[in-house]
Amino acid sequence: MINIKKISFLFLITFYFVFNSNSFANQSTHKIEILVNESIITNYDIAQHFAINSILKNIQVTQENGDILYSKTVNELIDMKLQQAKIIDYDIKIENGNNDYYENYFFQSRKLNKEKVYEIIMKNNLDVNVLKEIINTSIAWEQLTAGLFLHTISISDTEINELIKTDESLSPELAERILTNKQVQLKSDKYLRDLRAEANIEKR
């Protein structure tokens, strides 16, 4: 359940960036902080993703965890830029008519209340387009990696039966889907690590 309050959330985000981040400047300047191949990450991107990811993960930002969350935000942004480049390369597009379906899937798969997330973002004057970018990139990346790796995966009856033993409520079809999704995720993670190892990443 999301329970971040407006005043404390804004105070902690602002306090952290003003006093702890050398990269934080007037967001209107959109100062370039990182180059990822041909893509850029600005101080505005970092601040917005820092705040919105804290909401999505229901994390209360403190002086103790601020540096860790900041570094995690930067790393996730680098990964996102690499994902977006491959999404463009493979011409993966989300049809406009399916936006609501994919948004609902994004929130439901993370057990988040969609309306509550949007309410917190709007009340805190955060950029809703950044949230939409996070959602669209996540969905498109799932589609891309499924297309790349799904046909390479084979799940045995033994694996299915072993999983059902741990949860007898699972049908063989659902157990196979769960195991398949895990294998796709493992291959997707390795693919992203390889892309990152090959990328030209420059911090300004």
Molecular structure report:
This protein has a single domain (6-203), classed as Porin chaperone SurA, peptide-binding domain (Triger factor/SurA peptide-binding fold, Orthogonal Bundle). The protein is 65% helix and 6% strand. It is built from eight helices and three strands; from the N terminus they run αββαααααααβ. Strands 2-1-3 form a three-stranded antiparallel beta sheet. A hairpin with a 2-residue loop joins strand 1 and strand 2. The radius of gyration is 19 Å and the shape is globular. 18% of the residues are buried. Mean pLDDT is 87; it is low at 1-8 and 18-26.
The third-level CATH topology is Triger factor/SurA peptide-binding fold
Report strand %: 5-15%
Q: What value does the average pLDDT take?
A: 87
**Helix proportion range:** 55-70%
Number of strands: 3
Using the 3D structure, state the CATH architecture: Orthogonal Bundle
Reading side by side through the largest sheet, how are the strands ordered?
A: 2-1-3
Oligomer state equals single chain
Q: Report the sheet with the most strands, covering strand number, pairing sense and barrel closure.
A: 3 strands, antiparallel
Q: What's the number of structural domains?
A: 1
Low-confidence stretches: 1-8, 18-26
Shape field? globular
Distance between the termini: 38 Å
Q: Give helix and strand order, one letter per element, not per position.
A: HEEHHHHHHHE
Rg on CA atoms, Å: 19 Å
Number of helices: 8
CATH superfamily: Porin chaperone SurA, peptide-binding domain
Structural class: mainly alpha
The CATH class, by name, is: Mainly Alpha
